[in-house]
Amino acid sequence: MASPGSGFWSFGSEDGSGDPENHGTARAWCQVAQKFTGGIGNKLCGECPRPREGGGHGPPLASCGRPFTSACPPVSRPRVERNYPEYFHSKIKMWHFNSIPLDLLPACDGERPTLAFLQDVMDILLQYVVKSFDRSTKVIDFHYPNELLQEYNWELADQPQNLEEILMHCQTTLKYAIKTGHPRYFNQLSTGLDMVGLAADWLTSTANTNMFTYEIAPVFVLLEYVTLKKMREIIGWPGGSGDGIFSPGGAISNMYAMMIARFKMFPEVKEKGMAAVPRLIAFTSEHSHFSLKKGAAALGIGTDSVILIKCDERGKMMPSDLERRILEVKQKGFVPFLVSATAGTTVYGAFDPLLAVADICKKYKIWMHVDAAWGGGLLMSRKHKWKLSGVERANSVTWNPHKMMGVPLQCSALLVREEGLMQNCNQMHASYLFQQDKHYDLSYDTGDKALQCGRHVDVFKLWLMWRAKGTTGFEVHVDKCLELAEYLYNIIKNREGYEMVFDGKPQHTNVCFWYVPPSLRTLEDNEERMSRLSKVAPVIKARMMEYGTTMVSYQPLGDKVNFFRMVISNPAATHQDIDFLIEEIERLGQDL
């Protein structure tokens, strides 16, 4: 094992004379090392492979006799042929072969093993990032749960493992991870891997702070304030007025909306509970997200108090049925308190008629919420934002930038039109966090308006990507994904072996279709055919995963048997990837 002396960072000849192997790489390494703070940069740079007059170890010297810097000209010395990265990493691995995590910072003299360990972790991550965009690599290396459990020992132990084993766990975890940034991964609404967003996520984890007060997250709190205001402006609320918060996903954002709507109508529920209020009824479409019922269950409202409104053939809520059901509820003496319209349903990608819904909510004095978790990104596009016309009339909006805008998971915002309502609904005045005699503006202590105490920093990814791309960059992203969806639709709508689930081009990037194998194409449209057709998509999906070539989701809906639901949110996808998907479905399903 290499000693922790200067020889560890020496990349000279085997006898330790310090001959340079690659002056350009070494000089670049020193420039990187100098960026480290707290003196570690000078220590590391002093250990870098610089030629020293007379040979030997120690801080390198230029011909002037002073310490070598990046400004000094390279010294001509005999080159030792060696693969620099390979040799470099072998030195690092020698360093921490028997090291354990307790050797890392904050351990005394932990700087070098820490830097070496993190460098190796970074190498593993960067290799994974590059492979994620390589179409020749698999989207997934699928193994069944029992296979993975038997192949590796995942159990937790009493004694620490060394850093080599820790690195192996990192590699193993990524080996079997789904490459959600792969251009041929179409399985979920959240796909892609943005490099600026990734960098922001790394920074957020490095900062490792909480979002409840300004005093421990000053920049992040300010960025949340700025970003939420900008999102409210885009929704159409004058001057970006209102309130909001980043929450752990759209389901929680929707539950926040339900909770605030209830408090707005019956503020006494906060202290006295549901026993103090009449039976409350919420309304949402039959194609809406399941989180509305989950929220009702969690808040004590009950799933039976969520009325599902009929949809038309394209999956849009029918305003006439909404008004009919509201009148029915009122006649029974119950209280309608929330209508949740959907802008971009999960399966069809449908947009409810928000203007008509807003008129009904205004007429009956009901809180209007818009679940735009999936469709909110279209507000960034001048070409497509008309699909959310009327969203500006909502009382609250859920918007998930981690979906259509490609921000790394998780990043979900709840926007509320009335300022102060969220604070009044949720605050508990914990004096050990929210002291009223602090020396700064207490309005930036946002934690008391959240359900959580500990709250992750989710805003920085979105803010940094917005700075890097601009609103116009997000617009290009959205427009490209919708164009790809239309490209797929135009190819398969009249192609042999394909049947569309509904007529007309998609409003979002959701393209829903059946693949009909040759053996079923001549059968009559009866129960037997539907039964056999329902088994096609699951088998093709299983084969996709076993081959690892691509992934696309399927599901039944209502009286419709299993069909493929294609969604596109990854800007890395191209026409060629869409062509590949079609050919792969046909290859994997032709014998069924």
UniProtKB/TrEMBL annotation:
<dbReference type="GO" id="GO:0005829">
    <property type="term" value="C:cytosol"/>
</dbReference>
<dbReference type="GO" id="GO:0004351">
    <property type="term" value="F:glutamate decarboxylase activity"/>
</dbReference>
<comment type="function">
    <text>Catalyzes the production of GABA.</text>
</comment>
<keyword id="KW-0472">Membrane</keyword>
<keyword id="KW-1003">Cell membrane</keyword>
<dbReference type="GO" id="GO:0006540">
    <property type="term" value="P:gamma-aminobutyrate shunt"/>
</dbReference>
<keyword id="KW-0456">Lyase</keyword>
<keyword id="KW-0530">Neurotransmitter biosynthesis</keyword>
<protein>
    <recommendedName>
        <fullName>Glutamate decarboxylase 2</fullName>
        <ecNumber>4.1.1.15</ecNumber>
    </recommendedName>
</protein>
<keyword id="KW-0663">Pyridoxal phosphate</keyword>
<dbReference type="GO" id="GO:0042734">
    <property type="term" value="C:presynaptic membrane"/>
</dbReference>
<comment type="subunit">
    <text>Homodimer.</text>
</comment>
<keyword id="KW-0210">Decarboxylase</keyword>
<keyword id="KW-0770">Synapse</keyword>
<dbReference type="GO" id="GO:0000139">
    <property type="term" value="C:Golgi membrane"/>
</dbReference>
<dbReference type="InterPro" id="IPR021115">
    <property type="entry name" value="Pyridoxal-P_BS"/>
</dbReference>
<dbReference type="GO" id="GO:0030170">
    <property type="term" value="F:pyridoxal phosphate binding"/>
</dbReference>
<comment type="similarity">
    <text>Belongs to the group II decarboxylase family.</text>
</comment>
<keyword id="KW-0968">Cytoplasmic vesicle</keyword>
<keyword id="KW-0564">Palmitate</keyword>
<keyword id="KW-0597">Phosphoprotein</keyword>
<dbReference type="InterPro" id="IPR002129">
    <property type="entry name" value="PyrdxlP-dep_de-COase"/>
</dbReference>
<dbReference type="GO" id="GO:0031410">
    <property type="term" value="C:cytoplasmic vesicle"/>
</dbReference>
<dbReference type="GO" id="GO:0009449">
    <property type="term" value="P:gamma-aminobutyric acid biosynthetic process"/>
</dbReference>
<keyword id="KW-0333">Golgi apparatus</keyword>
<keyword id="KW-0966">Cell projection</keyword>
<feature type="modified residue" description="N6-(pyridoxal phosphate)lysine">
    <location>
        <position position="403"/>
    </location>
</feature>
<dbReference type="Pfam" id="PF00282">
    <property type="entry name" value="Pyridoxal_deC"/>
</dbReference>
<keyword id="KW-0963">Cytoplasm</keyword>
<feature type="region of interest" description="Disordered">
    <location>
        <begin position="1"/>
        <end position="24"/>
    </location>
</feature>
<dbReference type="InterPro" id="IPR015424">
    <property type="entry name" value="PyrdxlP-dep_Trfase"/>
</dbReference>
<dbReference type="InterPro" id="IPR015421">
    <property type="entry name" value="PyrdxlP-dep_Trfase_major"/>
</dbReference>
<keyword id="KW-0449">Lipoprotein</keyword>
